[in-house]
Amino acid sequence: MFNQGGVWQWYYYKISIIMKKFTCIGCCLIFLFFIGGCTCFMAFYNENHPSGMNKYYNLIEPTGILESKYMQLGSHNVKTYEEDAEGTLLKYKVWYPEDMINQNTTFPVIISNNGTGWGVSKYPEWFNHMASWGFIVVGNEEGTSWNGNSAEESLNWILRQDSLANSIFYNHINKEKIGTIGHSQGGTGVVNSITVQPSAKMYKTAVMLASTFDGYSSFLRWESDASKIKVPTLILVAKDDGLTPPKDLYNLYNAIPNNVFKVMGRRLNVGHGDMLVFADGYVTAWMLWQLQDNDDAGKAFIGKSPELSKNKDFIEVRTSETAITHLKMRYPREGI
């Protein structure tokens, strides 16, 4: 006799298998759409959110006149050169003005102190921008820079290149015009580069962005001593950045001797990682002033009304009072 219950069980079994297959396919499609959507969003974000991987200088709308001027690319076309390095440095990479090759002259040098895990390959456009203003900019792939060791290696390497007759940098390095810039952990690297490293005395100026410094950097154990700094220093951080709270900023600024020209400020409406590019207009101006004697760029920081101090995007701008006396002697016509 025909077992009707068995038939329905068979149909239910088959339908359940089909439904499971459709469920699996549906979940896979949803997952693929999700991944695809995230990928598209990240591609859009990476393309449109200013960063060292894109042409941030075309995306950011600076407030200050000088800030806007120096946020743009400079007049030099830029070329790159790279060479393998030992250990975690992986490679040295240099961005330099293309016309350097045909000129019998030297160029100022900027040494990078990387942020945590942030080698040169993660912010190439920042290097390109700085080199377009007439600098030779040197970096490596080291992601731990707080002690200044990797910057010391980069500096020693480019100085060796200057002495090698077969190097494209032969006799092109201005040893009297060397500066360093560091972001985040690299800010502590800057302090150590210009104070305790063997080549510390070669540096003429420094910039720290979103520096995670508080003298001993708490649990991070990144030791440094800003009281040993002897060169003009610019410190810029994001206002709402938990990694660089006001206490740490003021500790760093106050630790630097008052007879050293020092400037600090906090940038509104950006985050920790953003400072590398959003501060670049003034960072470029600072390096042009300090290493190329560009007095126009210097007006962002000195004079009766320095642009940085009145820029609505920056707050708590401070300048060392004692150092201003020295600047009055250096620039008697600037009305400082």
Mean pLDDT: 84
- Taking pLDDT < 50 over at least 5 consecutive residues as the criterion, the unreliable ranges are 29-45
* Helix residue percentage: 25-40%
Structural class: alpha/beta
Report the principal-axis shape.
globular
Largest sheet: 9 strands, mixed
Provide a count of the helices.
11
The total of beta strands comes to: 9
Cα-to-Cα separation, first versus last residue = 110 Å
Task: Give the DSSP E fraction (strand runs of 2 or more residues).
Answer: 15-25%
**Order of adjacent strands in the largest pleated sheet:** 1-2-4-3-5-6-7-8-9
* H/E element sequence: HHEEEHEHEHEEHEHHHHEH
Q: Which value, in Å, is the CA radius of gyration? A: 26 Å
Written account of the structure:
By secondary structure, this protein is α/β, with parallel strands linked by helices. It has a 9-stranded mixed sheet, with helices on both faces. The longest helix is centred in the first third of the chain and has 45 residues, at 4-48. Helices cover 38% and strands 18% of the residues. The protein is built from 11 helices and 9 strands. Helix 2 packs across helix 8. Residues 29-45 have low confidence and may be disordered. The chain is globular, with a radius of gyration of 26 Å.
